[in-house]
User: Fold Putative zinc-finger from Micromonospora auratinigra.
Amino acid sequence: MSRADHMDVAAYALGVLDAQEAERFEEHLATCWACAAELETMVPVVGMLSGIDGETMMALEQTQTDPALLDRTLHAVRLDRRRTRMRQILAAAAAVVAFGALTGAGFATVFHDDRQFQQAEPAPTVPTAAPSPGPTSTDDPNIGDNIEQEGEKHNATDPGTGVRTTMFVASKDYGTQIYVQLSKLPGPRTCRLVVIRKNKTSEVVSSWSVPGTGYGTSARTTPLELSASTSAGRNDIDKIQVQSIDASGIATPLVTVDDL
Assistant:
């Protein structure tokens, strides 16, 4: 078995032999366990050397007379691949710069100011404590008369709890919008707003926590104001109720608007 036969192992692994040479080597490989073993060891490096063309392989064959040529050849291949990779990186960077120049401030906003996304997100409906337009006594049973809101106005005071409310109910394409103002509402407690339909089904449309000072009380004179909506049509609603929820989840009515 000649040295040339062993050199065919690398050439065969890389697929650079012509059909006649490949057939001759395969006949040799069937009877030479050394070449078969060497071919098996070549498999892991085939991927690394797959970019070497036929001319480079011819140069590799010359390492029979110049062993140092192999190292120089492999070094040249690695250097060429590094240069190709660097050109790809520079081209990508140039594309990013060009895109940034075209899009201007919008590009900077997307990649450098995520607060824009946070501002774009819709805020959930939450109860807010807002002062009335002018000095209003919480002893006035018609508290909220001076508030301008859309929809039908309804006042109610619960004789047992003393909680007072003014509600505005407006019909919408999507259902019904409800604006609520509450006073004489002590805390701390957890409350919810419930829509009770004429078919006796109910829907919780809002919930909130009441601090220890309450709302519309001597400790905190400003009433609680909140808005909510329901898919129920205006004519399908029988009553709207504010309920207090204890730690066990048991609901207790605080005030009810039932003159709808």
The two ends are 105 Å apart (CA to CA).
